[in-house]
Amino acid sequence: MLQKLSKAKYTYKAINFNFYTDGIRLQLQLESVLKKQGKTFKPLAGGDVTLLYFVDDLNMPATDPYDTQSAIALIRQSIDYSHWYDRDKVELKMISNTM
Prior knowledge:
Blueprint: E1 10-16, H1 23-31, E2 34-37, E3 40-43, E4 50-56, H2 70-81, E5 83-85, E6 92-95
Parallel strand pairs: 1-4, 3-6
Antiparallel strand pairs: 2-3, 5-6
């Protein structure tokens, strides 16, 4: 179904969760298809293309010692606030044109 979307408007990235998926690995996968434009990160396809992330098996990651699932928390932060943080520089990364 994702392959049938208009390539002029949409691109996609399929992400498979498993027991070992954590927030760090997920963030690396999410950022692998983004490029920096100023202070904002947008899809590599450029233009006004929307990037769709397809997440398979959302509830698969194991809980950490604090009974949270950092991968799911990262997705929620991205949806709610359209940003996440750079783990090395501890600064905000604004994300646009993603779903």
